[in-house]
Amino acid sequence: MAKVRGAVVVDNEECKGCGLCVEACPHDVLRLNREVNSRGYHYSYMENPGNCIGCSNCGVVCPDTCITIYRMKVE
Amino acid sequence: MELKDLIKPENLVYSKSALLEDVPMHYCPGCSHGVVHKVLAELIEEMGLQEKTVGVAPVGCSVFAYNYIDIDWQEAAHGRAPAVATGIVRVNPDKFVFTYQGDGDLASIGTAEIMHACNRGENILVIFINNGIYGMTGGQMAPTTLEGMVTSTTPFGRNVDLNGYPLKITELIAQLPGTSYVTRQSVETPGAVRKCKKAIKKAIDNVLAKKGTSFVEVVSTCNSGWKMTPVDANHWMQENMFPFYPLGDMKDSVKGDNNAKN
Asked: Which CATH number does A3-74 carry?
């Protein structure tokens, strides 16, 4: 069966670290970073990139639209 | 497989709408305004309405909405967005005109304007963001504040003997014959955002078909005003706001249909 792989790219400077994407992710991919961006927010990043299926849930709930999502089928 | 093999233009499934300006929004982290702005921008882009859309921005947190979506905007005095939109749509009947208002703007100072604009059945879309609080000015009590809810002007909770009852403005609007589509949505989960997008799309279609006023309430959070984290505010909204402001369509018909199910 074809497996789906996804990738999330977060714009670190735009992210405000609200954590809604972490909550919305069904596969526990995203976390808030310990590091902060130039505005002092703990931006989100992919903690478990292998779990991502590119479902776009994180991007849909992101209030600052700083998430871009890629997805492809892997044979 | 490496991530760099995945991150290629042909695999792109979701990105920022071209209509959203490349500036950081001034809203607090986790504010629902950002999601509704995004949904609106995506719909206007997908439906090819950029050239014929005129937005009317309110007074409130979303007063700077014109900085974020690349369409024509007009700023209105506090609560007067429906009156300004009426003028715009009567002079330019081919334009798609919408107002974007918060609960302090629409349900308090602008009650007269919204009631009469909806009663006249102006061909406009009204987006109503209801977070039960005056977010911009420091979290004071709004007409839509829930009974017992703590705000900066009701530190012991809203007392209905003193402050009156929360106003279900969308239920009132649904009674008016001038409206065509009246609904209440939310944007706290991915599913809710997608449903809200569908509802706003339907409302835009109704306005373009000149069926009358379309009214979309979005029950939202104000995590700064509620003094919660964004995630806690979403849970609080689900537990406390939704029982009083139930989601769903309240009216779906055309202007002048008095037999519509409310």
From this structure: 3.30.70.20
Query: CB of B161 within 8 A of CB of B184?
Result: no
pLDDT in tens, B116-154: 999 999 999 999 999 999 999 999 999 999 999 999 999
Q: Calculate how close chain A gets to B29, using CA atoms only, in Å.
A: 5
A38 Cβ contact list (under 8 Å, min separation 6) = A13
Neighbour tally for B168: CB within 10 Å: 19
**Looking at CA atoms only, how far is residue B187 from chain A in angstroms?**
7
Could you tell me which residues come within 8 angstroms of residue B158 by beta carbon, excluding any fewer than 6 positions away?
B141, B145, B146, B147, B148, B149, B151, B166
Contacts of B28 in chain A (CB under 8 A): 16
- Could you give the residue ranges of the DSSP H alpha helices within B92-239? 103-104, 111-120, 160-163, 169-174, 190-208, 223-226, 230-236
H helices, E strands: number in chain B: 11, 10
**Nearest partner of B130 among B157, B159, B168, B74, judged by Cα:** B168
Set of chain B residues whose Cβ sits within 8 Å of the Cβ of A72 = 6, 11
pLDDT in tens, chain A (75 residues): 568 899 999 999 999 999 999 999 999 999 999 999 999 999 999 999 989 999 999 999 999 999 999 999 887
- Annotated domain spans of chain A: 3-74
In angstroms, the separation between the Cα of residue B129 and the nearest Cα of chain A is 14
Contact A72, A2 (CB under 8 A): no
Residue B224 has which token pair? 């700064």
Q: Which residues pair with A66 in a beta bridge?
A: none
Per-residue pLDDT tens over the stretch B93-112:
999 999 999 999 999 999 99
Task: Please give the class, per CATH, of domain B27-252.
Answer: alpha beta
Closest Cβ opposite residue B230 in set A7, A18, A57: A18
Query: Closest Cα partner for B219 from B205, B203, B199?
Result: B199
